[in-house]
Amino acid sequence: MRSPAAPPLDRETISQLAGRLDEARRSRTPTTRLTDDHPGLTEADAYAIADRGVSLRVDVGERVVGAKLGFTSAAMRQAMGVDSPNYGWLTDPMIVSDGQLSLGHLIHPKAEPEIAFVLGEDLEGAAVSAQDVLSVTAYVMPVIEVVDSRFAGFRFRELDNTSDNSSAGMVVLGRRATRPDFDLSRVGVVVTVNGELFQTSSGAAALGHPAASVAWLVRRLARSGRGLEAGHLIISGGLTGPVDLLPGTSVVVEIDRLGSVSMRVHE
Fold it and tell me: What was the pLDDT predicted at 5?
């Protein structure tokens, strides 16, 4: 590993690596892990690559509409050898409002049930708490995140995933908005795949409480003087294991007091 005192990757290398991931996404041709070529990659490098990748999407007309959390479940962090969550950004073409998912732009699609927060006010600061998040949340809703790694075989290390915008793919929205005036950590979650029970869970699977996930994100963004904006959609982390998606797969997520969200996959 590169020593902590070593300089970060230069701008040209960051741009080149971001371009490599962007080309993999657009061509649906997975690439090798960045950490194989750059074993000294740091967290700062990884987020710089991700930010540049988002900028490439904005440059062609996409708009940042929110953010996502990754590695929020203890089981996933243990499996990946990860100490803390990470985050990525959502842009408007990632949002699916009709429940119909096309695989045409995806490489390794996998679905996870999540609770999304839509903010009614800007939120920033290094000491933001879960209660602070709830106080500025306009509403919450059930969603299905479709993660999509740009790395061959869906095999990556933590910093590869961070560089890849936390495997952001698509987000399928539920149809009901609910005020979060009850304990979101205690809501039950049921995932059905092709009519068969897949897994059950609770809201606590996301860092103990979904709002705690969002608070972690805000505190992490504060390190670089950034925050979240009113209207942003924040998906707070997977609540069960991932569902592999193939043409014809149907997924239904039911969350107590929040309603349901469903998705059908097409080629």
Answer: 46
